[in-house]
């Protein structure tokens, strides 16, 4: 039942402190979910890569406690060509017949849910997303594992908010907290996970309201994860500091290269998405066709298979990468891997298979950084260039550019290596990449800033709101969701779907205002309906919410709506309830006022 008759009311969200507590709980769940997913994925990869394809992609130091590729069979062109297609076919079946939301990158879906769907994510999505991603990456698809872990956490947050009857604002916050938890755990990046979650939803802004819940969730998920999987950062890196300022021009050159290849990546990925959306094939076959094309690329460059994080760790360790197929190495081999990774990732994720874009972005950027560093070693041996700092700086700056997330790119890399020594060059290169790529983003559902997002319709200029009186814009008011205080709660629940409302204005026999009943906070559960039918009236569970009169301002009305977490507000005059106003009514009045002022000033 609701607040007075069940556990849901006891644990309902009452304010920011409740959000903080639930963020800790969501972080705990996200940490366990990320561990379970990573365990299943690495065991799958150990079989398919080692026993079938005969290729060892390596493994980051932070994942050494998981099972990794052990004995490797001879390279098998047959499996390299066909296994990504077979995995794509299985993914196509999952996404076409069980859960369409499990296809693609995952992060863009989270961004869409935040802006346009009140943070709602179906409870089944995290499970199917995890299965689809294991099938994709385990079969050699080029993608990242952050998408499902972010969706696992986001699904926990959204589902919990739905169960508690939370409003849209609280649900969005808990969804982002879950996203931060998933990222913080899988990348072992407690601060980076939180910053990425609040920065990725906008092109030029951050969701500052959710920052503290995201930090709490990300840190909790990180601690949970490392207590099971073992402590330490994701990548093991030797100490380094920028003490030779002759290297700075090379970092600037790296920033320009990251912008150029990043722009190319965004265009290729979006083009592939558009082509596959119009391809005259059944939807369940499209990921298989994309996987077959990835297999063709992998015949030449097996290095494009998987997330690419193992290759990064091998290069950090000082290993000179050599082509598996052709036996050559050097700067241009690294550049070739980066460019072919662009195509393999675009074909994997753009065709409808499941995998993140953040991981491949790090891998592509790392290869570009290694290319610049190794070229500098050849051309300027007197500078004493070490490759791995350029590799790591390239990782952060490339992601910052393609995702329009400069702070997240910098902090995430620093967290993943457990050191902030590279922060100065990361700042230089990330800013260059972001400034130059101001019109492009890998995430199509990003919105420029919070003031253009539907999630912030409530976040209006308070000075203007306080100057607009209700009577200036409204002469009549809605009455559909006005009910008698004597109406039973069970009858109200039955009538609610037809009225399409969850909050109701309660009136007495003389049409006097009594308060508000919210079915989001008060509901008889199905198992109690027979026993409590017609025993509880709306008047017994009414919430005392202040009303406003026609002479009051929109600012006062908005303040009451936010403070009491209701979606409508009673208008009372001379003791009688004239009707009510909703959020959307206040927003429309505000927009009309702003437009009128703009026309007068034009």
From TrEMBL:
<dbReference type="InterPro" id="IPR000644">
    <property type="entry name" value="CBS_dom"/>
</dbReference>
<keyword id="KW-0407">Ion channel</keyword>
<feature type="transmembrane region" description="Helical">
    <location>
        <begin position="210"/>
        <end position="228"/>
    </location>
</feature>
<feature type="transmembrane region" description="Helical">
    <location>
        <begin position="355"/>
        <end position="376"/>
    </location>
</feature>
<keyword id="KW-0869">Chloride channel</keyword>
<feature type="transmembrane region" description="Helical">
    <location>
        <begin position="383"/>
        <end position="402"/>
    </location>
</feature>
<feature type="transmembrane region" description="Helical">
    <location>
        <begin position="78"/>
        <end position="100"/>
    </location>
</feature>
<feature type="transmembrane region" description="Helical">
    <location>
        <begin position="174"/>
        <end position="198"/>
    </location>
</feature>
<keyword id="KW-0812">Transmembrane</keyword>
<feature type="domain" description="CBS">
    <location>
        <begin position="541"/>
        <end position="596"/>
    </location>
</feature>
<keyword id="KW-0868">Chloride</keyword>
<dbReference type="InterPro" id="IPR001807">
    <property type="entry name" value="ClC"/>
</dbReference>
<feature type="transmembrane region" description="Helical">
    <location>
        <begin position="20"/>
        <end position="41"/>
    </location>
</feature>
<keyword id="KW-0406">Ion transport</keyword>
<dbReference type="GO" id="GO:0005254">
    <property type="term" value="F:chloride channel activity"/>
</dbReference>
<dbReference type="InterPro" id="IPR046342">
    <property type="entry name" value="CBS_dom_sf"/>
</dbReference>
<dbReference type="Pfam" id="PF00654">
    <property type="entry name" value="Voltage_CLC"/>
</dbReference>
<feature type="transmembrane region" description="Helical">
    <location>
        <begin position="289"/>
        <end position="312"/>
    </location>
</feature>
<protein>
    <submittedName>
        <fullName>Chloride channel protein</fullName>
    </submittedName>
</protein>
<keyword id="KW-1133">Transmembrane helix</keyword>
<feature type="transmembrane region" description="Helical">
    <location>
        <begin position="422"/>
        <end position="442"/>
    </location>
</feature>
<dbReference type="InterPro" id="IPR014743">
    <property type="entry name" value="Cl-channel_core"/>
</dbReference>
<dbReference type="GO" id="GO:0034707">
    <property type="term" value="C:chloride channel complex"/>
</dbReference>
<dbReference type="InterPro" id="IPR050368">
    <property type="entry name" value="ClC-type_chloride_channel"/>
</dbReference>
<keyword id="KW-0472">Membrane</keyword>
<keyword id="KW-0129">CBS domain</keyword>
<keyword id="KW-0813">Transport</keyword>
<feature type="transmembrane region" description="Helical">
    <location>
        <begin position="248"/>
        <end position="269"/>
    </location>
</feature>
<dbReference type="Pfam" id="PF00571">
    <property type="entry name" value="CBS"/>
</dbReference>
<feature type="transmembrane region" description="Helical">
    <location>
        <begin position="324"/>
        <end position="343"/>
    </location>
</feature>
